Amino acid sequence: QVQLVESGGGLVQAGGSLRLSCAASGRTFSKYAMGWFRQTPGKEREFVAAISRSGDRIASADSVKGRFTISRDSAKNTVYLQMNSLKPEDTAVYYCAASSLTVVTFKASEYDYWGQGTQVTVSS
C-alpha cells in the first residue's frame, strides 16, 4: 500500500506560479513511477505529467509543455509539479498517482494509487 498526500494548491493570478508536492508513505517510493493528473467538473481525469522510477524519463501533456515540470526526490519520498505561466484553463483539482509499471504512462487506468487531490484555481 502507498498513501499519497498532495499539497501546494491554491488561488493564483494568470501568469503566476505554484509548486505542488506529493508525499508518499512507505519505503517503496522508488518502485513506482509517478504521475500528475487533473480534473474539472464533468470531465474525465486528464494526464498532466509523469516521471519514471529513477527520474530519467519524463512525459508531459502538450498543453503544459514548457510551463510545467515534474521532478522527484527519493530521499524525501516526494514528487513535485512546478507550474509556471499558469492560465485560467489550468484550473482543476490536481491528483498525484503512483504506478507499478516500469514505463512512464499517461493512462489513468495504469496507476495503482491516488491522492485525494488539491485544488488549483487560476484567475484571469
How much helicity do the residues have?
Answer: under 10%
β content, as a range? over 45%
Decide which structural class fits the backbone: mainly beta
Main sheet, how many strands, which sense, barrel? 7 strands, mixed
Order of helices and strands: EEEEEEEEEEE
- Count every helix, treating DSSP H or I runs of 4 or more residues as helices: 0
Report the oligomer: single chain
Total beta strands: 11
- What global shape is seen? globular
Mean pLDDT equals 96
Distance between the termini: 40 Å
Alpha-carbon Rg, integer: 13 Å
Uncertain segments of ≥5 residues (pLDDT<50)? none
Fold and architecture overview:
It contains no helices and eleven strands. Strands 2, 4, 5, 6, 9, 10 and 11 form a seven-stranded mixed β-sheet that branches. The chain has a four-stranded antiparallel β-sheet with strand order 1-3-8-7, with no helix packed on it. The chain starts with a strand and ends with a strand. It is globular. The model has no long low-confidence stretch (mean pLDDT 96). The chain has 124 residues and is mostly beta strands.
List keywords for this structure.
124 residues, mainly beta, 7-stranded mixed sheet, 4-stranded antiparallel sheet, globular
What's the gist of this structure?
This protein is mostly beta strands and 124 residues long. The protein contains no helices and 11 strands.
Helices and strands in order:
Elements: E1 4-7, E2 10-13, E3 18-24, E4 33-39, E5 46-51, E6 58-60, E7 68-73, E8 78-83, E9 92-99, E10 113-114, E11 118-123
Parallel strand pairs: 2-11
Antiparallel strand pairs: 1-3, 3-8, 4-5, 4-9, 5-6, 7-8, 9-10, 9-11
